[in-house]
Write a structure and sequence with these properties.
heterodimer; A: 220 residues; globular; B: 220 residues; mainly alpha
């Protein structure tokens, strides 16, 4: 009689934990780079609005470059460029640096739009009431302009969260990389990709829905 | 610290191959845009006019395309369908993934475009004796086209940038070709730097061409 060797390597509950942990890592790298990129981007946006020569002549083309080159090329370039100048960031660090600059280049235009959204008369009124430039920025421009562009900021943030999947090319084990590792072992690509997709969907869909609702409510 | 030797010669030697691969990138991006426009238009019309299963199918398509990473979608067409014994070629994977993604994003653009045209125009056209087809092709679509023209251009740029993901599924468009050369010569930084420049030029050419075309199309 011939003995059949069954080699069981299916999808187990542990693998679900592995994917969940990887989803947390996706969230972590996105949260770090989105928050750093937003701060940097608001500063750049202010420069674009305020510094006429520096903003328009120098900063805008540089930011444009980061939006015109595929993120994956930027990641590979930076990952190979850092050791050349004697720095070693590792996959996570490189991913954060590239995603932060990418986010900043997108947020800069959003932030500039936010400042422009506040009417000149209102700014003048604030200044003539005795508010200093920074008080005007903090108490007038931030609440009003920020409200106008908040939905587009959410769009940028969600886009970066999804684009963080590309960090997997550097070897950082986030959600998509983890699903690839599991596919190699279990040979069940459909199931595992469906779970990974469900994770991404669960992260992105509620936020985008909420932002769309806010936009509708604030537009009234 | 800066004792890195840039080897431009191998890159310059394979530059014709890279440029040819750049053409392939443009082709696959354009083709997926054409497919995406056709499907996206269909999805938008279904979501506006129909209800029931067709509506839910179109909505599911749009939400899935918009709320999961493009790379995930490529992997799904590449590896996920393998579970059903459906093995696509790298070109088909990239084309299917990009078309799926573009259709989802364009459907929302078209929906916004259709909603910006008052319903009374369709009724006026119909009461003048036009058929539904005539009313759409002569009255509605030309106006919608004006609204979605710039989003369409942006989406084409995105398609070019997204096609760089082809390198991860073994498709030898610009990025894939670059990786092929880079991994043979180990001059990763040089190759990807040149590729980044090529991408930048492609994007700028597309934007300039679309601006010229807009001047020609929207003269009145």
């Amino acid at each position: 009689m011939q003995e059949t060797i069954s080699f069981f390597s299916g999808f187990t509950i542990n693998d679900l934990w592995f994917l969940g942990e990887a989803a947390l890592r996706t969230l972590w790298i996105s949260a770090v780079s989105i928050s750093l990129g937003t701060v940097l981007g608001i500063f750049f946006g202010w420069l674009l609005y305020e510094g006429k020569l520096l903003g328009a002549m120098a900063l805008a083309p540089v930011l444009d470059i980061f939006r015109s080159i595929p993120l994956i090329i930027q990641l590979v370039l930076f990952y190979n460029f850092a050791p050349i100048i004697g720095l070693d960031f590792g996959p996570f660090g490189s991913g954060v640096v590239v995603l932060t600059i990418y986010t900043a280049s997108l947020v800069a235009n959003v932030a500039r739009g936010g400042i422009e959204a506040v009417g000149k008369p209102m700014r003048r009124a604030a200044r003539s009431l005795g508010l200093s430039y920074w008080q005007d920025m903090r108490h007038v421009v931030l609440p009003i302009g920020g409200r106008a562009v908040f939905p587009s900021w959410v769009g940028v943030a969600l886009g970066v969260m999804k684009d963080s999947a590309l960090v997997s090319v550097l070897g950082y084990v986030e959600l998509l990389k983890a699903s690839q590792i599991l596919i190699t072992r279990t040979q069940e690509p459909f199931l595992i990709l469906a779970i990974a997709g469900a994770f991404y969907f669960a992260l992105s869909f509620p936020i985008s829905r909420y932002a769309a609702q806010l936009e509708k409510r604030w537009a009234q | 610290m800066f004792d890195y030797n840039f080897h431009w010669r191998p890159v310059m030697k394979s530059l014709p191959d890279l440029l040819e691969a750049g053409l392939l990138t443009l082709q696959v991006a354009t083709l997926s845009m054409v497919i995406g426009i056709i499907i996206g238009l269909g999805l938008a019309l279904i979501r506006l006019n129909w209800s029931g299963p067709a509506y839910w199918f179109a909505t599911a398509w749009v939400e899935l395309a918009r709320n999961t990473p493009a790379l995930f979608q490529l992997f799904f067409f590449g590896f996920g369908l393998g579970a059903f014994g459906l093995h696509l070629s790298p070109f088909t994977i990239v084309l299917a993934g990009l078309s799926f993604n573009c259709a989802g994003y364009l459907a929302e653009n078209f929906r916004g475009g259709f909603q910006s045209i008052p319903n009374t125009q369709l009724r006026a056209a119909r009461s003048l004796g036009m058929s539904s087809w005539q009313a759409y092709t002569r009255i509605i679509i030309p106006q919608v086209f004006r609204v979605v023209y710039h989003p369409l251009t942006n989406q084409l740029v995105w398609a070019v940038l997204m096609s760089s993901l082809g390198m991860l599924v073994g498709f030898r468009e610009l990025s894939g070709e670059t990786q092929f050369f880079a991994s043979r010569t180990f001059r990763i930084f040089e190759y990807f730097a040149v590729t980044a420049i090529i991408y930048y030029v492609i994007v700028k050419v597309i934007l300039a061409a679309s601006r010229l075309l807009a001047l020609r199309l929207f003269r009145y």
